[in-house]
């Protein structure tokens, strides 16, 4: 009678029976077939070895003494590649030498011949029970691995969704534009963020209001990861909501800053603190209003020197005292640097904190990328586990050697403007690859002014090019009397370097660079391809809100002829 429990252990297994006696082999098969899913047979050890490699059974039942290759020799060969498959060894008499070697080769059980059903079943019960338990354990391990993989995929998806939400909340609406002054010049925002986790404790928002004012929010929540990110994201989302319909002015700014910081305070845990600032830059009045809570000092580059403006408020906690506001005059200011403490607190390779070098590097660089490169050259960024956000507000130069050129919107006029700018740049000492790149970007800017400012080309450009009608339209273009494209070139000496500003203006209604959700220009869209070429060629590219002025900035190393 077959034990149901034994049957439950063996029904999914395959067994190999190796026996040279045909009668004995038939009897053993009769005992095994009701129990196992598959029963394979071999008349000697050599055939048993071949069958083992071919069929990969779960269990071997083998005679000891057989012709060609006995059970010990077969097992010795099997163990060269397989140490786990259990073996039941049948023998009429087991000598000591065979016993020792069989044990060394991992024989699970010895069965006396002639073989009895009850003895075989007891041996099979012991061996297959171990196999069953191993399989159950392996299945459990596999399920744990699959569950872990599922959880990792789930968590990864959640992190990606959270990061997408973070990118949606964080915004820099002046990433590609500049805040044009009503008379001349303006301001642009240059921003770099270096998060340490997929969710950052740093956050920001840059908004241009309807009355041409710049509003900026910068947040640095305590700690790392999800908790810090939730705090900064909540505050940033509230800021984005609160600035809707904002009108400049001191009472309005005080109300905005107070509401943002109060909202942050209400959403902090008891032991949390939050650093943040709200800033309003008014290009008409050339002034800044500031509410800074626990943030590093703001740096101003004014007339070639750096001023440190310390915040007037402690970090935000569950208790928020009345905010102290600060007003800053921007006369003579070329750059304003705001950064979270991950930048200034970083240790330099020579010892000390990087904030001790920050003022010098602000004057010696023109973009946040340059400044961040200086930081990395002096500090081991891999050892800094704090998020870094750098916001640089740069004034478009209005002082320096200024050259203004105008030309009719024709191909000849574009060539004239290009050559005049190139002559002045070479005369000032600009040369090399950076001059080539600036001239490439300028060529794209002039072509954009021609296409959008004069020809009024938009989405039709692609169709015209596909129909081979673009060249004919360009060659036949005849400008109206008095319609011109202007080019303004400003050359500014800066710490032994040459800073070049180029602004190209056209009389057209302007263009719009469509944005993907990640706020990158679309290369196939109107003006998108040219804008991307310009971005790759020069240090900074911006356009005014109307889209009819393009601004380029490029730095040149070495001596120049400006005094």
Main sheet makeup: 6 strands, mixed
Strand content: 15-25%
Query: Helix count, per DSSP?
Result: 16
Estimate the global geometry from the Cα principal axes: elongated
Helix content: 25-40%
Radius of gyration: 39 Å
Q: Which secondary-structure class do the elements indicate?
A: alpha+beta
Given as residue ranges, the uncertain stretches (5+ residues, pLDDT < 50) are: 514-526
Mean pLDDT: 85
Task: Tell me how many strands there are.
Answer: 22
Beginning-to-end CA distance, first to last residue: 109 Å
Biggest β-sheet: strands ordered side by side in the sheet? 6-9-10-11-12-15
In words, what does this structure look like?
The chain has about 575 residues and is of the alpha+beta class. Helix content is about 40%, strand content about 25%. The strands form 4 sheets. The chain has a 6-stranded mixed beta sheet with strand order 6-9-10-11-12-15. Strands 7-8-17-16-13-14 form a 6-stranded antiparallel beta sheet. Strands 2-1-3-4-5 form a 5-stranded parallel beta sheet, sandwiched between helices. α12 (about 410-425) packs antiparallel against α13. The protein is elongated, with a radius of gyration of 39 Å. It starts with a helix and ends in a 7-residue tail after the last strand.
Task: Write a concise keyword list for the protein shown above.
single chain, 40% helix, six-stranded antiparallel β-sheet, 563 residues, 22 strands, six-stranded mixed β-sheet, elongated, alpha+beta
